[in-house]
């Protein structure tokens, strides 16, 4: 735990330093670009840093360092952490960019208990008394903000790769990062497609289509890709990367299944987003697919009519929550999460990775799938 905390501190420091450097470029253009920096700082501070942790432990898992080794020691013979910290920072900045764009797509008002980026820019328009539509300005500005963060994540990755003497490892890390970007964008598209195209699909397809969205929008991007990127950075072998993929995919699926439960039943004071937000957004998740399979025609019709209505009130949210719970879908989801965690942790039993990293990754698996936010 102390090691994870120290890593998070180093990643935050690297992000802060990077944003400060880039703020000089923006301020040299115009002082009116200050909001881009301020909103970036807010989006890039705090958070659970799961992607950074998975990248770090992916790197550690192939390092071959003995138990008891402390990479954060001040001794002269410890490896330089600069590259892995910059890669971890790149992943966190990429995640922030994805959140900015995701909130625009979902028309979300909040993120981590604060206004979403497009709402922050919308407020600037309102407070400035500017011409035109504030909502349109907020969305346009947030799209550019997300694009800026995407570019910054790539710069951080390049900085890390420039530090590597092993150019094969650098190239492999870059390829894994590029693959992650392509897959998560494809997964995001499938997610918004599913919200609109579901009436044209057969009932039998809904669960498998939801699983495809989970896999590419979240499971690979949140867990598998950071692990493999970290291991590639450390010069991991094909066998080691394959083991991390076998661990990361089921764990990533469990991670997103937990997220889907929180999107329907989470406590707003803990998650930072309104309870039932996924219901208002019309997310066609595995939870919804399971519930629809288990309920009668009448309740299913009501669920379909209400799901995706942004004006749902508290009573309607409670009705949907009650319908989903009574169907047994929540219990099935919990059982599926447990099975996926077992699949993942079983891989760690004899994986060709350092003993220390196998232990830490098993603990991290419990943390990310039992969380309340």
Automatic annotation (TrEMBL):
This is Polyprenyl synthetase family protein. It comes from the Bacteria. Belongs to the FPP/GGPP synthase family. Keywords: Magnesium, Metal-binding, Transferase. InterPro entries: Isoprenoid_synthase_dom_sf (IPR008949), Polyprenyl_synt (IPR000092), Polyprenyl_synt_CS (IPR033749). It holds the Pfam family polyprenyl_synt. One of its GO terms (biological process) is isoprenoid biosynthetic process. It comes from Orlajensenia leifsoniae. Its cofactor is Mg(2+). PROSITE patterns: POLYPRENYL_SYNTHASE_1 (PS00723), POLYPRENYL_SYNTHASE_2 (PS00444). GO terms for molecular function: metal ion binding; prenyltransferase activity. The keyword Transferase applies.
